[in-house]
Every structure is written in structure tokens, then in C-alpha cells.
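About this split. The held-out portion is used to measure sequence recovery: a designer receives only the C-alpha cells and must propose an amino acid at every position. Recovery is the fraction of positions where the proposal matches the reference. Here is one held-out target exactly as it appears in the evaluation file.
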């Protein structure tokens, strides 16, 4: 088992907290009337959720409240979420036609969930469709492909993903793909290859947002230069506060913002808390023990690994081995990103159902707490709306505009 896989286990979800904790935290979550009104009237977008893995497990029903995990329709409603990007994800080591096939299976699974719950969910592909869904009282479901390895170096596959409704692609996952370097792998291409730049331009033409979470710093700058449209970092946090290679430096955030892009803050404790990272690093044997326990319980079942990884990691926190990270650290990263990039360039990308959530942000129902905290911190209502979702919709609309322009000039 490689380091990547071990790390994957540890960075897999810790969303299913012990029942007693949930009960305790619920009683203390008081949201003011002003925050509640603002939150539920706003466009709230989450650009990264890994719930798709659970769709592959035939027993999961997103329509009912689940005791495990972070996402289902009842809790999306409680959290006032307008739009959710379901991640199409397979590990970087799976490549070739198998990667394409498995991505297609997941796209189909998302579309199937939306059609099963069509009274509650609407498959959306544009910013204006998201606004329409909100007006109709539906939750907008969108898709992002997390890793360029899933196109098998074939622009036709990318075009088919776009046709099926995919609206962003993360250029890499944790390992390099054939045409782009990842932040957590040895550099092999010095950023983006020439073909990688073609991929970015074709994404621009198709109206698929270019996502730079997970990529190396050089890949980020190559993509920034190649892209005719603003970029997103769908689930990244601030490296100045937590030194993870896949977080963004202040300079990167400034440069992303200068081209109109948005960083959507990730809630994973290992990307938010330096203390948590240090504890992980100091005790690699815990990481291995957690991985072994998860493998024993789940084998290769990734949906099971998400839930079990959660549960076991939180046991280590309860035992005092790993530090307990409070949800307010998300606010620290939002504030820092606003200072570095500006109020128009920050959004939310939780990584729910795919990462270890901090205490107090166990699931989507907790989101109004972010609005409450931002108001308390002194943000104006308009600025809160920008962070909650307006910034992300602005990038979507701009990406659509660039796509129309490029297609028109080809005629
Ligand atoms: Zn990710």
C-alpha cells in the first residue's frame, strides 16, 4: 500500500460523528434571525462533495436522513444549500479506459439520483439554471470531474463529459496524470504539457471550469496563463495557515483573483489545522493503523472506506491522540483568503463525505453557522452573499460567456 493510499484513508471522511456529540452540538447552534433570513435567501454553493461514492452502493438513499455521512436531502435543506457539485472521483493510479468507464458510471449514478428525486433536485449546468432551481424550491445538482486522468488523454472523452453535464474538471488528483503535475507527487512534466494546455483551452471552449485544487504550483501558473476564463480552486485552503502542498499561497490567491477566479475553502482538518498536520506527521504509525483498520472493515469498497475512515479517525481524536479541531478554523481561512485575494474571490468547497470534518461542521445542516459567524465578524450582507455563492456563480457565468465567444469565433 503506497503513501498516497494511506494518506487517502486518513484524509477520507470523518463526517459520521458519535451521536452524543451531534446531539450536544445541535443544542448550542443558535442562529440569529438576521443570519437565518440572509442565509436562506442567499445562493449557497458548495463546489466539492464526495457523496457520489455512496451512490455506487445500491443501499444509499439521498432522499432520507442518514445516520452516517454529511449529505442527504433533509440535511441539505436544513443547511440552506442552493447548489452542490458532486465529485466524480477515482484514485489517480486508475488510468486508461478503466478510468473513463468508472467516471461514466459515477456520472450516470449522479444523473440517476437526480431523476429519482426530481421533485427535490435539478441537474444544472449554468449559473442561471442554479438561480431557477432556487426559485423552484429545488436543490441544484452539478458535477465536477476530480482528476484529468479520467479523460485518458482524449479530448473526445472530455467533450462527452461536458455533454453529460460536467461543469468543472480538476486537472489532477493527488498523483500526476499524463499531462499535468500534482502537488503531492514528484514533478514529471514541469507543470502542464503542451497537450495539457490544449485540455485547458478545450475546457474553455466547452464551458467547463478549470479547477486547480490538487495541482502543483507550476501547473497552477501554466493553467492560469493558458486559460481564457477565470479558474477555480474548488476545495483548497490557505497555505499560510496550514502548510499543505495542495493549499494555496497568498501570492497564488492574488494571481488567481487578478484573473477573476475564486478559491473555495476546504473544511478538511488536515488542510485547515497545522496542529492536526503536525500530529499526523509525528505519528505515521497511527496513519498506518487507521488505514489497516479501514481496509479490514471495507476491503476495496470506497464508500465504506469514507465512512469507516471518518469513524476511526474521530476515535483517535476522542482518545486524545489527534487534536480536536473546531469548525471556527474554517472562518480563519475565509478571513485570510479574503485579505489575500479580496472579497470577490472566496467561496465554499467543503469536501463533505470525502474528508475529516472539524467538530461543529459535521454535515451540511451546519452551514448557517458560517453566515452567522461572518455577520458577527462584521462582513456586510452583500459580502456574505458573495462568499456563500455569488462569487462562484459569477465565475460560472464568465466561463459560459468565454465558451460562447470561442464557439462563435469558430463559425
Ligand atoms: Zn480532493
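Reference sequence for scoring:
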Amino acid at each position: 500500500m503506497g503513501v498516497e493510499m494511506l494518506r487517502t484513508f486518513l484524509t477520507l471522511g470523518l463526517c459520521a460523528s458519535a451521536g452524543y456529540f451531534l446531539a450536544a452540538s445541535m443544542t448550542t447552534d443558535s442562529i440569529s434571525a438576521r443570519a437565518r433570513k440572509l442565509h436562506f435567501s442567499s445562493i449557497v454553493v458548495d463546489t466539492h462533495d464526495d457523496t457520489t461514492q455512496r451512490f455506487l452502493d445500491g443501499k444509499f438513499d439521498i432522499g432520507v436522513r442518514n445516520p452516517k455521512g454529511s449529505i442527504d436531502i433533509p440535511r441539505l435543506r436544513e443547511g440552506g444549500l442552493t447548489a452542490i457539485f458532486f465529485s466524480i472521483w477515482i484514485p489517480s493510479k486508475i488510468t486508461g479506459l478503466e478510468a473513463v468507464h468508472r467516471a461514466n458510471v459515477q456520472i450516470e449514478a449522479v444523473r440517476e439520483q437526480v431523476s429519482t428525486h426530481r421533485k427535490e433536485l435539478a441537474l444544472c449546468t449554468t449559473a442561471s439554471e442554479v438561480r431557477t432551481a432556487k426559485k423552484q424550491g429545488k436543490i441544484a445538482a452539478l458535477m465536477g470531474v476530480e482528476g484529468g486522468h479520467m479523460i485518458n488523454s482524449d479530448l473526445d472523452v472530455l467533450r462527452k463529459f461536458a455533454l453529460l453535464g460536467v461543469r468543472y474538471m480538476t486537472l489532477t488528483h493527488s498523483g500526476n496524470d499524463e499531462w499535468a503535475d500534482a502537488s503531492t507527487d514528484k514533478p514529471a512534466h514541469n507543470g502542464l504539457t503542451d497537450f495539457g494546455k490544449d485540455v485547458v483551452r478545450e475546457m474553455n471552449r466547452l464551458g467547463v471550469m478549470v479547477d486547480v485544487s490538487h495541482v502543483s504550483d507550476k501547473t497552477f501558473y501554466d493553467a492560469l496563463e493558458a486559460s481564457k476564463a477565470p479558474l477555480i480552486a474548488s476545495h483548497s485552503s490557505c497555505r499560510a495557515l496550514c502548510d499543505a502542498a495542495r493549499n494555496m499561497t497568498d501570492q497564488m490567491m492574488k494571481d488567481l483573483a487578478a484573473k477573476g477566479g475564486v478559491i473555495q475553502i476546504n473544511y478538511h482538518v488536515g488542510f485547515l489545522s497545522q496542529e492536526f498536520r503536525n500530529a499526523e506527521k509525528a505519528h505515521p504509525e497511527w496513519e498506518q493503523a487507521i488505514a489497516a483498520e479501514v481496509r479490514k472493515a471495507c476491503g476495496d469498497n470506497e464508500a465504506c472506506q469514507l465512512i469507516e475512515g471518518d469513524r476511526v479517525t474521530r476515535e483517535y481524536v476522542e482518545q486524545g491522540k489527534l487534536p480536536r479541531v473546531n469548525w471556527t478554523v474554517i472562518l480563519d481561512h475565509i478571513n485570510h483568503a479574503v485579505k489575500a485575494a479580496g472579497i470577490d474571490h472566496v467561496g465554499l468547497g467543503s469536501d463533505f463525505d470525502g474528508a475529516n470534518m472539524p467538530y461543529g461542521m459535521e454535515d451540511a445542516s451546519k452551514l448557517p453557522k458560517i453566515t452567522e459567524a461572518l455577520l458577527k465578524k462584521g462582513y456586510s450582507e452583500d459580502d456574505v452573499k458573495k462568499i456563500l455563492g455569488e462569487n462562484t456563480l459569477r465565475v460560472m457565468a464568465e466561463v459560459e460567456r468565454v465558451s460562447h465567444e470561442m464557439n462563435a469565433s469558430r463559425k
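Annotator remark: Residues 146, 214, 235 surround zinc ion (CB under 6 Å).
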